[in-house]
Amino acid sequence: MANETKKAPAKKRTAKAERAPKKQTTNGKAASGAATGPQDLPDGADFRMYTGGGHTHESLGLEPDELLAMYRSMMLQRRFEERAAQMYGRQKISGFLHLYIGQEAVSAGTVHALQDTDPIITAYRDHGLGLARGMTANECMAELFGKIDGSSRGKGGSMHFFDVENHFYGGHGIVGGQIPLAVGMGFAAKYKETGAVAVGFFGDGAISQGSFHEAANLAALYEIPVLLVCENNGYAMGTAVDRAVSEPDLYKQAYAYDMTGALVNGMDVFEVYYAMGELAKQAREQSKPALVEIRTYRYRGHSMSDPQKYRTKEEMESKKNEDPIIRLKSYLIDHDLATNEQLDALDDEVKAEVHASVEFAENSPFPPVETMYEDVYVQDDYPFIV
Length: 386
Known about the structure:
With 386 residues, the protein is of the alpha/beta class.
């Protein structure tokens, strides 16, 4: 169901979604407008469904230029990674490369719903969130190339994008390792009374890690303002969720920790924006955590070396109809917010930006050997390294 119209404030990214009227119900009942609702929820569970769609930009208080900004962000992520895949094939990029293609509505919707100072941390599939948070294509491409002008001075690579200025804290290669850090960031926000909400992303393969359960327990026990966001793209590497997890409705694990659980359609940027805004508002005002399962789909393999033999061509074809960028493009055209020609011009602009980032990365030098021990610890010297 769409919500009543709210006038958006002038400044972008000021948590407009947090002020949107509530529509979801709790205590085990599916919200109005949900496509499907859980049928076997325990009494007293605080589960929320954000799967029904029906939002409009007016109902969410989004101005047309904000919608175009979200569309541009999604296009930049898509074109950047398409070019990165080409560069990987040409051996310009070493190591691993995990693409985010197909999941752009999650990053764009979330970032637009949050305040700019809310810390975000994620796993190794980090390009999309980094770009959405304000990192430049130049610094991101240079990092992939292992060059000194990269976001981590060329020492991190694909899995370790990092940008303190934009409150984006990685980029972590150890599965689930960033989840306790997200809770720690939420704890710091509460302790320092900054009013921030920490958001920690992880994949469906990480939710069975002990790190998740330990962090979730502490988050609920200490009433920490943190959103634990599981980007469920259906596969942990090549293993389908229902073959690896006894309860494939991952959001239900929130019940064990007495926190809010939410299920979100991650192919609909409106739904992500609305859900994350509402849940962040609750975390910010009540200092309570939530477990958010965002169901999405990656159109590429787990990494560039993945032959994807675990899924059929028919499945892939059917998922193309849900492409979040195509959905938003259709909305913009259908509501006379942009023409095909305008969106094509925007695409050309993005392609040029990404093309320039490749040139930038090519021309950037590799980090000198003498910088090997720099950027490891905060302090300037560390005598324990000989």
